[in-house]
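User: Hello, can you help with two protein structures?

Assistant: Certainly.
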Amino acid sequence: MTVEPFGARLRRAMDTRGPLCVGIDPHAALLTAWGLGDDVAGLERFSRTVVEALADRVAVLKPQSAFFERFGSRGVAVLERAVADARAAGALVLMDAKRGDIGSTMAAYAAAYLDPASPLFSDAVTVSPYLGYGSLAPAVEAARAHGTGLFALALTSNPEGAEVQRATGADGTTVAATVLAHLKAENAGERPMGSFGAVVGATLGRSVAGAGIDLDTGGPLLAPGIGAQGATPADLPEVFGAAVRNVLPSVSREVLRHGPDTAALRRSAERFAEEVRAVVVP
């Protein structure tokens, strides 16, 4: 049985539901703001509300694994349910786990998130290439086998990232540019969009264009930083240039702060999706 690649499924979801990814980030302050306890019961109520409000209308939901893991096995059980329910309602699920390792350990991470037999099976997962891009090979192989995807950290919005990502090799090429070049090679020939994406902060402004970095990898570009971190949808064309068509902006707090009101969560997500669509769709 041939599995449709993640890139094709994501392109369709972005075109029909709007180019937006909403994070599921149940950190303690947000649980409190929702009137929930900072415990497993609050975690479950929060996650269920977000999934019920948004999974049938946004392109991608992105649970942040750490906020579930902090509650141990019971928190992971809540995450498993959230992933399954979100996918059943039609959303693509991007697991924000930022895993990175070598050999059999990387293969185990890939099996945890990208194998349909896993209770945490997701449509894609974030990965870290900073043990060398080649260390991601088991995840790349798993993604190709199962029709899933990867988003590799490339140019993140946190200021500390620059000391690694903007570092240059002997040929003058930055580490970030090398990662992006590898992703472009993975996506070669894939239509309408490749399955191997990059994480590029929407807050980086002209610094990306000024560095001469090619963001047109043929795959999706996950763009955190919209909303609470200061970037707006109107900033996207300046940051991403010709690659803006493949940008998937990620919003968390600016949508989630409207909960637990389901209607308010939906209105906020729909507003962001329309604002993004207005600047990225030709």
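That covers the first. Now for the second protein you mentioned:
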Amino acid sequence: MVSYGVRLDEAQRRYGHVCVGIDPHPGLLDSWGLPRSAEGVRAFGLRVIDALEGHIGVVKPQSALFEEYGSAGIAALEDVLAHARDAGILTILDVKRGDIGSTMAAYARAYLCDDSPLRADAITISPYLGFGSLAPAIDLAAQTGRGVYVLTLTSNLEAVTLQHATTAAGRAVARDIAEEAAARNADAREKHHLGHVGLVVGATTGSAVNACGIDLAAVNGSLLAPGLGAQGAGPAQVREVFADALANVLASSSRGVLRAGPDATSLRDAAKQTVEEVEDLIA
């Protein structure tokens, strides 16, 4: 299979550097006139994909908002992922999995195997049991042409205690994560495309990248940037965080687009406006 980095680059060149979240929060279900149920989140996800097909290259379903409805919610998520595949839209499944050994390997197979009903083009993963614990997911993603996004600098205040902490070597934990990702993308750099190991870096994290001594451009991976729009990140904040790595940013917008629904035209218009803003920013 063609690597995730190559497929993502093609999608971004065609549709822009924006990923639209599929986050069926209870309040959004209410405003869209949908029930707070597995059928409601299924309908929500399918409507988003139908509205954005041919306009957006990447969507990011939030797994937890489907999981809360039990097995029926998981089945709804499977349907949404399949619908996105049929529409030719790349999917990043936001699951934030992180474990060790055989358990991490099972998570990897659940989302990154060709025959899994929950397969996505990429997933989010957590490195805070040690970056090496992520090897089953990183390795399987490489084998199947998929990607992973490693939580590195998130925008929640609680994250600072861990992500900004220094190791015995005097380096920020987040810096070590970024450099581990860069090492796994080295082969892709030689082939002049993005690697399959990306980072999650919040667009509202301000000076944290510099404070932690991180060289985002050296990662040579996609930089998934939540926090655009509803969470308050504007052009100045995005430039401060990503600087010379702006070309690798995949800006994630959820509520900023979704609150325009359920009307399909309004969703498309909101997505188009977001794409225009992001492309102007990174040009």
